[in-house]
């Protein structure tokens, strides 16, 4: 199982690094209802959750597992890479404040590298793949159209390997994984791999940025 604690010293300041400039989705119809749900897998769920907790219009971001069944949805079992699960984040949002397409754009711009197969940063295995789990037929159509749009625009030199997968349910991760970035911003893995993503969100998407993160549990 991949390690999550590379021996790196905390950076003196957060540098967002190179920011991938991706176009807005050409297909992004409005969603009905007061709330909607998106499920994304983009490597270690600590950073994915940490970014979307700072997106204005997001009312909840929960780390968990998607792609497999309930019986295998625990950290140790998913870590074997044999469950079908990916570490994922379930995002509840107000579609009148942020669209599904905008969430996808943030995902591809600052959350994940869509060109690395079963790998993100230092983490390896199918549980760290990038994947979109649409919760409605409309989301599926938007995600497929956007991946095709990004591929045609050749935003990355390598081909996009992020898949749109059938949504089989979402299973929240253990409590100690929730709000990890908010609770432990000085943790070396977070400093090196994930704080730059949060800073990239602030820099690249100022209209979607919220300074105060929404958390699963009260963080004092």
Features:
L-methionine:thioredoxin-disulfide S-oxidoreductase activity, alpha+beta, Met_Sox_Rdtase_MsrA_dom, Peptide Methionine Sulfoxide Reductase, Chain A, 6 helices, peptide-methionine (S)-S-oxide reductase activity, 28% helix, EC 1.8.4.11, Peptide methionine sulfoxide reductase MsrA
The sequence of SSEs as H and E is EHEHEHEEEHEEHH
Distance between the termini: 31 Å
How much strand? 15-25%
Q: What is the second-level CATH architecture?
A: 2-Layer Sandwich
State the CATH class. Answer: Alpha Beta
Give the topology, please.
Layout: E1 36-42, H1 45-52, E2 58-66, H2 75-78, E3 86-93, H3 100-111, E4 119-120, E5 123-124, E6 130-133, H4 137-153, E7 163-164, E8 170-172, H5 180-183, H6 188-204
Helix pairs in contact: 1-3, 1-6, 3-6
Description:
This protein has about 220 residues and is of the alpha+beta class. The chain has a single domain (about 35-210), classed as Peptide Methionine Sulfoxide Reductase, Chain A (2-Layer Sandwich). About 30% of the residues lie in helices and about 15% in strands. The strands form two sheets. Strands 7-6-1-3-2-8 form a six-stranded mixed sheet. Strands 4-5 form a two-stranded antiparallel sheet. Strand 6, helix 4 (about 135-155) and strand 7 form a beta-alpha-beta unit. The radius of gyration is 16 Å and the shape is globular. The two termini are about 30 Å apart. Mean pLDDT is about 95; it is low at about 1-10.
């Amino acid at each position: 199982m991949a390690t999550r604690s590379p021996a790196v010293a905390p950076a003196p300041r957060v540098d967002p690094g190179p920011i991938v400039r991706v176009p807005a989705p050409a297909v992004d119809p409005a969603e009905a209802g007061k709330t909607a749900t998106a499920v994304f897998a983009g490597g270690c769920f600590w950073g994915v959750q940490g970014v979307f907790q700072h997106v204005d219009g997001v009312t909840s971001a929960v780390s968990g597992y998607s792609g497999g069944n309930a019986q295998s949805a625990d950290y140790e079992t998913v870590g074997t890479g044999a469950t079908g699960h990916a570490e994922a984040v379930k995002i509840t949002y107000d579609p009148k404040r942020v669209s599904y397409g905008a969430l996808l754009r943030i995902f591809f711009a600052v959350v994940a590298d869509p060109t690395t197969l079963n790998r993100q940063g230092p983490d390896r295995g199918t549980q760290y793949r990038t994947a979109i789990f649409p919760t409605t037929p409309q989301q599926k159509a938007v995600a497929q159209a956007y991946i095709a749009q990004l591929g045609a625009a050749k935003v990355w030199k390598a081909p996009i390997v992020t898949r749109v997968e059938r949504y089989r349910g979402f299973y929240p991760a253990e409590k100690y994984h929730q709000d990890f970035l908010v609770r432990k911003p000085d943790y070396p893995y977070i400093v090196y791999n994930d704080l730059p993503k949060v800073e990239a969100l602030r820099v690249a998407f100022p209209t979607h940025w919220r300074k105060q993160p929404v958390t699963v549990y009260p963080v004092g």
